[in-house]
Amino acid sequence: MKISLNILLLFFLYHQGFCQTQILDKETNKPIPYVHIISSGGVILGWSNLNGIMNWNEVDHLLSTNKIDSIETSHIAYQNKKLTFHYLLKKKILYLNQSVIPLSTITIDSKTPDYLVLKGFFRSYQLDNNEPKAYMDGIIEYYISIKKNKSLKFKLIENRSFKNPILFKVKIKEKGSVIVESGNRTGPPYLERKTILALENYDLTKITDTNYKISQGNDTIGFISADTVNHMIKTAIDITTPKRSYSRSLFGYIFKFVNISVSESYASNHFPHPAKSELISCKRYVKQFLSHKKLKKEPVQVESFHEFYVLEKKYISKAQFKPISTSTFLDLEKQTILHPFGKIQSQKAFQNFQNS
Questions:
Q1: pLDDT of residue 279
Q2: What's the whole-model pTM score?
Q3: What are the Cα distances from residue 40, in Å, to 85, 90, 122?
Q4: Contact 14, 45 (CB under 8 A)
């Protein structure tokens, strides 16, 4: 009996290892984390972990309920690859080619510019309890006022959205019951007028000629470094460290924010204070736990990622901006949406709460 159990255990471990694909950089042979695998029908099958491994055993429920064959890989820094799912299942290793994103020099279309225009590619995705729930990417133009602190305006040129249909199948709220639903937190990221360092009263401590420590009070929360060869500056800040975590409550629901990390990259020689116009990319990661006061179940772990990569930069005047059809994040105040907790609420109020 013991021998049979050992054989079954070995078979199980072999099966677990067999149903994995590691995704590697074709040039460097290094693992590629957070590669999304999306079906032709828009179903998120999963994503690679920090070691570039995609475990197919974790998506059995999706495979059994969806007829999936044609799939596509998605990662901002690598070329998308289309292939069949059956082919991918047989591959122990999948190689991806890097994408070459040319950075244009900034152009000035006016002698008296009023707006900085950043056009680029964005992607965002959400995980609920480590399972992919929603994904969105696309091309967007941001219009940032350079003279006054006006609302950020943008023009969404094109985008596509995908979702995990199972995680969106939420039961209708019954009388007296409580359902914790995280909603969809994907979409274009919000860009501040200023750089991340200029938003708060951070203290900078010089470590070397190319490295500074970022602190707030007694907490070290990040670093800023310079790449003098490629003329780049990179900033990384963990706004919410474990001992700086905080909670918010709304309608009986509790949000516990345990990690908010922001990183920015600049093509700049102005170390350690680059300008917003020199932005290359920015990333934001938020991890929180969602629960309800009346619900005794484990909190839902919700993670959201937002990335933006600049492709074009220019300055324009008010006259050039006026005929452009744009939106603002505050325009959502005029709309009412189905609150992710089952109530109709102002989108602006809820968004402000989420970003607090």
A1: 93
A2: 0.70
A3: 10, 19, 20
A4: no
